[in-house]
Amino acid sequence: QYSLMKDVVSSLKRHRMHEQQFSHHPLLVLSNFGHQQIQVKLMATMFQHLFPSINVHRVNLNSIKRCLLISYDAETQLLDFRHYSVKVVPVGVSKGLRKLLQERFPNLSRLEDISELL
């Protein structure tokens, strides 16, 4: 079973799609591929070689825009593919400063000075 991209986008309340989203390969997460069966090992190796490996010590977190989760169910022998969009947001800052960091312009009409926003 599968869903078309246009059906997924139409079902979302707020969809996030931009050109830079597909400029880098996704972060690949394999779940439940630890079984000793040869076909499961072969599937895991195949998925690992579809995308370049990521060096966690050198990767720029801003370049990771997608995550691909592939989960294997041993009982039904089915694969579950989930494709997520990743968004990096600042944490521990005020709402006004967060908007500035995300390049959105806040409404300054109610403020007398920029320091009130920060």
Automatic annotation (TrEMBL):
InterPro entries: Brix, PPAN-like
GO CC annotations on file: nucleolus; preribosome, large subunit precursor
Main localization category: nucleus
Occurrences of domain Brix (ranges): 1-118
Localization: Nucleus, Nucleolus
Pfam families in the record: Brix (PF04427)
MF annotations from Gene Ontology: rRNA binding
Alphabetical GO biological process terms: ribosomal large subunit assembly; rRNA processing
Protein name (Swiss-Prot/TrEMBL): SSF1 protein
